[in-house]
Write a structure and sequence with these properties.
The complex is a heterodimer.
Chain A: E1 3-6, E2 23-24, E3 31-34, E4 44-46, E5 53-54, E6 59-63, E7 70-72, E8 77-84, E9 90-97, H1 116-125, E10 132-135, E11 139-140, E12 149-153, H2 164-168, H3 172-183, E13 188-193, H4 199-202, E14 208-213, H5 221-228, E15 237-240, H6 242-254, E16 260-266, E17 274-279, H7 284-288, E18 298-302, E19 309-311, E20 324-329, H8 394-403, H9 406-411, H10 423-428, H11 435-450
Parallel strand pairs in A: 1-14, 2-17, 12-13, 12-15, 13-14, 16-20
Antiparallel strand pairs in A: 3-9, 4-6, 5-8, 6-7, 8-9, 10-11, 10-15, 16-17, 18-19, 18-20
Chain B: H1 2-14, H2 24-34, H3 53-82, H4 91-124, H5 131-141, H6 149-164, H7 177-188, H8 190-193, H9 221-226, H10 235-240, H11 252-264, H12 270-290, H13 297-302, H14 306-313, H15 324-344, H16 352-383
Helix pairs in contact in B: 3-4, 3-5, 3-11, 4-5, 4-6, 5-7, 6-7, 7-16, 11-14, 12-14, 12-15, 15-16
Classes of the chains: A alpha/beta, B mainly alpha.
């Protein structure tokens, strides 16, 4: 009998424009790009120059501190540009695609005969190892860490998120191969949602399956870690995006790098919300081509509306960990009057001073990107706790981070959290604090201090 | 939309270098009062809940309105009753008198408090914080009707600056601003805040009301108890609120309406509010069983500022305990303390103000203990892994 973990805290936000189960074809793009910033905490060292030719799987850049952790190119072709920003920070490496894709052959391997070190080595060589994240610090991990466990969450329950089961269809074997490979390194825990019934998930082999039954953020891998095997100081767990597990599986089964993932194209500003198979690094404008209701006053998000990054339609590329591209109204021209007193029936709120509680949980909302209030000091108490299903005092942790009290942060469990765990808290916060930014900065400082 | 255009047109005057720059925070305050700001999220979550602190504070002010309106009526009622003119007085005459007696206090409260708030925000280059909207209406409701306006102004200035702004503004204050304002008056000008000469408005206003002799006295029921007299009011008057007392505190019914609004909208914590009542009832029952108090336990709850304090002041999220477990302890402590002060301290007939002040003081300690349990658990886990 599988272990079922019930979570009561949290909040499901029903947004308009959820992706339907059907898939659409996205035209091949001429140019793809890998963005080092998609791998949090990474300082990249670029390994290619403009004009070089790369095959699929050749490294574009590597982790500066751990040069064996490389990052592969999703396509074969000519490197057209290495774009740098302020202080020569690498923004992205662009590759112009060949007509015929050429793959680096890493050799098919039977994962059941490999040991942990061989799996690690194979992932590093193929430039996929960096897709593994770690707790503490919620950063892209390095090859010298030894995890006490590896966590994979197959449940994506953020608003408008892509259902992993859609992606899993046809990739069951690759997924299982990936899980088996990871299980050679450390014990793997697979988190599954209560509504998910694909047998590739519930009957996955070589892993411990736990079912998480509850509202968002039950799918957050950090929440799952907290309930199964919380991170103590000095310990490390790896967290792996389920799509990355499929990449790993393909590497061992087919001997080549294939970063095709199934993403949801969703949101109230998308004409026809749907799923699509695309490569990591596809330009966002290609993905949304001809599928937008408006051209102006929209917000394109590389990810879901809660944790995704605001994207520039012209210059941004599908992120390495992005499972959906969403578009919502920007709202910068809303000019809504007297918000402090009017009923505002179109707005969604957890507060009963609005009326969204009357309309039930089925109603979908068209929310825009406005903050809808000024930033204040923390006033209301208990707001974060209602949407943070972890054994952590969120408010006190945030205060410790703002105050820069590192001892207190450690005591309150900062090693167990990642910014995304505070995404819902940021949504409900009436003081409109930028919680994810605060947590990220706190983690960065701590990581520097402990290095 | 033309209003929007007008605001956009005059906005540059208030920005850096504009000729009205000194009023920038005032302008922004009014602009965000008229329109929800169009600023969009630049980091983290792209969507936000529609709730903000303006909405929350507005709801609290709305919840206070029944108590305020009844307080105005009761001020008139007490005046006419004291002059034995009740029979001939219309509802509107009494309400009108009370309205005219209370309105200046509300105006002074807002002008002084918001004035300081605006000036401070401009000085610190911050947005104006809404916190004073609530304090500004609570303060006139928790003082006797005869308090001179200049005293009120000084008390408010003291409370806003010393209790709030120097700590960092709304959200950072340790003590409830309204309680501090009342405490300032209570200890600086005891003769106008307590005793039996302060509870009735004595002069006519614009022809309404009755002039009462200077030496006229009318004690609150709690004042009578402290002097060893059995209170003259009956229970229904105590619940409906037709007794002398601070302006907004007398009617349990009006306060209950406010309580329902606050609890329903989830703005006040039922844990805090409920445990204040539990604390008060337990303590009053205990004293009653020991024979230390001459009145029934439920009279302790309906008299004085107990209900008003429990509903509107103990539940202030900033100064109360912030952990869920802590809220039970915090509330219980306030309720119990209020009754203890009333019964065991011969000098003070009312104890709610001191109890809340005491509660504010120990709230961080309560939270510290609750959070420390989580910290210890985590430390243990690391050792036992």
């Amino acid at each position: 009998m599988t272990n079922v973990i019930k979570l009561r805290k949290g909040l499901d936000i029903n947004l308009k424009g959820r992706a339907e189960g059907k898939k659409v074809q996205i035209a091949k793009s001429e140019e793809y790009a890998m963005v080092p910033e998609d791998f949090p905490g990474l300082t990249p060292k670029v390994l290619v120059r403009e004009g070089d030719h790369v095959n699929v799987g050749d490294a574009l850049f590597a982790n500066k501190a751990y040069p064996d952790v490389k990052f592969a190119s999703p396509v074969s072709g000519q490197v057209t540009a290495v774009i740098r920003g302020n202080r020569r920070k690498v923004l992205c490496v662009k590759v112009k695609t060949d007509a015929e894709q050429q793959f680096v052959d890493f050799g098919k391997k039977d994962v059941s005969n490999l040991d942990g070190d061989a799996v690690k080595k194979a992932l590093c060589e193929a430039g996929l190892f960096g897709f593994i994240n770690q707790l503490p610090y919620a950063v892209s991990t390095n090859s010298e860490t030894t995890p006490k466990a590896i966590f994979v969450s197959a449940l994506r329950d953020m608003p408008l998120a892509a259902d992993f089961e859609v992606e899993l269809e046809g990739n069951e074997e690759a997924f299982q191969t990936g899980l088996t490979a990871l299980s050679k390194i450390a014990k793997v825990y697979l988190g599954v949602g209560a509504q998910q019934n694909s047998s590739a998930l519930t009957n996955a082999k070589d892993v411990e399956v736990n079912i998480f039954d509850g509202p968002c953020p039950a799918g957050n891998v950090g929440v799952q870690v907290n309930h199964i095997s919380p991170v103590n100081k000095g310990e490390i767990v790896w967290t792996v995006d389920p799509s990355a597990v499929i990449f790993f599986g393909r590497l061992f089964a087919e001997g080549k790098v294939d970063m095709t993932r199934t993403i949801a194209i969703a949101g109230s500003e998308v004409t026809a919300p749907a799923y699509a198979d695309v490569l990591v690094g596809t330009p966002i404008r290609t993905i949304l081509e001809g599928n937008l209701k408006h051209d102006e006053h929209i917000r394109v998000i590389n990810g879901n509306p809660l944790t995704g990054k605001k994207a520039d339609l012209a210059n941004d590329y599908l992120g390495a960990h992005t499972s959906e591209v969403t578009v919502i109204p920007e709202g910068d021209n809303a000019d809504e009057m007297l918000g402090w007193i009017l009923p505002r029936a179109k707005e969604f709120s957890t507060s009963r001073s609005y009326f969204s509680w009357l309309f039930g949980k089925k109603k979908t909302y068209e929310l825009d990107a406005r903050v809808k209030g000024g930033e204040r000091h923390m006033i209301m108490s208990g707001e974060y706790d209602k949407v943070l299903p972890m054994d952590i005092y969120g408010e006190f942790l945030i205060k410790a981070i703002i105050a820069g009290d590192i001892d207190k942060q450690e005591q309150l469990g900062i090693y167990e959290v990642s910014p995304e765990d505070f995404a819902l808290a940021e949504f409900v916060d009436s003081s409109k604090l930028e919680l994810q930014k605060i947590v990220r900065e706190g983690l960065n400082i701590l990581r520097k201090e402990n290095a | 939309m033309s209003l929007r255009n007008y605001l956009n047109k005059i906005k540059p005057n208030f920005e850096e270098g504009g000729k009205l720059h000194a009023f920038q925070s005032v302008f922004e305050g009014f602009e965000s009062f008229l329109y929800v700001p169009n600023t969009t999220a630049q980091s983290g979550a792209n969507i936000h809940d529609a709730i903000d602190s303006k909405r929350i504070m507005s709801m609290v002010v709305i919840a206070l309105i029944p108590a305020m309106l009844f307080g105005m009526y009761n001020v008139g009622y007490q005046n006419y009753a004291a002059a034995n003119m009740l029979a001939g007085a219309s509802f509107w005459a009494m309400f009108g008198f009370g309205f005219l007696a209370v309105l200046p206090k509300i105006l002074v409260s807002y002008i002084v408090g918001l004035g300081i708030e605006f000036a401070w925000a401009q000085w610190k280059h911050e947005e104006i914080q809404e916190g004073y909207l609530v304090s500004g209406i609570i303060i006139p409701l928790i003082i006797p009707v005869s308090t001179p306006l200049w005293m009120l102004a000084i008390a408010i200035a003291f409370a806003v600056i010393i209790a709030k702004e120097i700590f960092g503004g709304t959200g950072m204050n340790v003590f409830n601003v309204a309680v501090v304002a009342r405490m300032f008056l209570f200890f600086s000008y005891p003769s106008v805040m307590t005793g039996d000469k302060v509870w009735i408005a004595k002069d006519t206003i614009f022809g309404l009301g009755n002039a009462l002799p200077d030496g006229f006295t009318m004690a609150t029921p709690l004042g009578q108890i402290a002097q060893g007299i059995t209170p003259t009011s009956n229970l229904s008057d105590m619940i409906l609120g037709f007794i002398p007392g601070s302006i907004g505190e007398t009617s349990v019914i009006a306060i209950a309406i406010g309580a329902i609004i606050l609890l329903w909208s989830g703005i006040a914590s039922w844990k805090t509010m409920g445990s204040v009542f539990v604390g008060g009832i337990v303590m009053a029952l205990l004293f009653q069983a020991l024979g230390m108090t001459p009145i029934q336990w439920y009279e302790h709850i309906v008299l004085g500022g107990f209900c008003f304090g429990a509903v509107f002041m103990a539940t202030d999220p900033v100064t109360s305990a912030r952990t869920e477990t802590g809220k039970y302890i915090y509330g219980f402590l306030i309720g119990a303390m209020a009754v203890i002060v009333r019964v065991m301290n011969p000098g003070y007939p009312e104890g709610m103000m001191l109890a809340i002040l005491f509660g504010n003081m120990v709230a961080p300690l309560i939270d510290y203990c609750v959070v420390q349990r989580n910290i210890n658990k985590r430390a243990q886990r690391a050792i036992n892994k």
